[in-house]
């Protein structure tokens, strides 16, 4: 039995099947438009660079909800010992093809068996918004426990109050998932409750492609 129990989201299978269906279009979008690639967004890239600097030398890094591995591959290029995990087998197929030098596995953030104080860094990069509201705090607590003292979490997510039910995504592909939006202060509150100390926050206004977002970086106190 895992030391850390996390409730299984009731819609986990729907979410997995949905991301399997959109994975090919998602990869095509990243490749052809640069959307979803931090290299095309200076502020997102700066956040990930600051995270990389902060976790360098502290231990392995885990990119949870890594999708096709864009950030995992970037961090590996920067010399970090990084691996990726994602709910969607199709996303992981792409990640393994695109970044064959990185380690990837298929699993839900809610089913990870992470040793206490085993990670220098953990990412939930635009990948935790499908977790039901009651489940996100449990996953954040798992991450907090898995970090070494001085280790860092970085997460990016959609800002708002609503639970937005999506029925299509990435070029009209039918999906069934809910985007649980968070107000920045709610998210940082949950991160603090999980035992981490927020160290930076970046707010992203809505633009022509997407709604507002927030990036939060937090540290496990020494
Ligand atoms: C918008 S994509 C972002 C992917 C990647 N982080 C990136 O920035 O390109 C969201 C990803 O979160 C993954 N995901 C959703 N729920 C998850 C869960 N419970 N556990 C692990 N991954 C999950 C999806 O399969 C999908 O690949």
Explain the overall architecture.
By secondary structure, the protein is α/β, with parallel strands linked by helices. It has a single domain, classed as Vaccinia Virus protein VP39 (Rossmann fold, 3-Layer(aba) Sandwich). About 35% of the residues lie in helices and about 30% in strands. The chain is built from six helices and nine strands, in the order ααβαβαββαβββαββ. Helix 5 links the parallel strand 4 (about 120-125) and strand 5 (about 145-160). Helix 1 packs parallel to helix 4 (about 90-100). The longest helix is centred in the N-terminal third of the chain and has 22 residues, at about 10-35. It is globular. The relative contact order is 0.17. The structure holds S-adenosylmethionine (SAM). S-adenosylmethionine binds next to helix 1 and helix 3.
Helix and strand succession?
A: HHEHEHEEHEEEHEE
**Would you identify the CATH architecture?**
3-Layer(aba) Sandwich
The portion of residues forming beta strands comes to 25-35%
* N→C terminal distance: 28 Å
The CATH topology is: Rossmann fold
Strand arrangement, largest sheet?
Answer: 3-2-1-4-5-9-8
Flag low-confidence runs.
none
Radius of gyration: 16 Å
Give the class-level CATH name. Answer: Alpha Beta
Number of domains: 1
The helix-and-strand class reads: alpha/beta
Protein name: Class I SAM-dependent methyltransferase
Domain Methyltransferase: 61-151
Pfam families: Methyltransf_25
GO biological process, one term: antibiotic biosynthetic process
